[in-house]
Each structure stands twice: as structure tokens, then as C-alpha cells.
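Title: Prediction job returns without error message
Component: structure pipeline
Severity: low
Priority: P3
Assignee: unassigned

Description:
Job completed but the reporter wants confirmation the result is attached to the right record. Sequence as submitted:
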Amino acid sequence: MTEQTIISVPLSPETLAALDAWIARAKGTPSRGEAVASLLAGALGSHSPSSVVPSLVTGRDIV
């Protein structure tokens, strides 16, 4: 298993609600931590940093 580091990130109620909405639409119902890791991996892998925040805040999938 790959070594992992746990980080704590404060989220506004609106951002947390958007994250929970994304989780509800995701396949397999990931945990919040898994969802954040998945969104971050997608953002770092193929999207510019500026495209992540609006998508996460609005609850829309990153395209």
C-alpha cells in the first residue's frame, strides 16, 4: 500500500454541501476523503487549477 498523508482542510457549509452532492452522484458512493482525493487527482492530472474551485463550489462535475 502506498504511504498516505492525512490533511485537514476547512470547508464552508456551501462547499461541503457541493461535495456531498457530488458524492451522491458518484459511482460507489465514496467517502468524503475519497471524493476529495478523486477530485484533486482529476484536477491535477488534466485541468488547470483555476477550473477546480468554481466546479467544486457549484457542485458541478469538472469537465
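Comment from assignee: result matches the submitted record. The mean pLDDT is 80.
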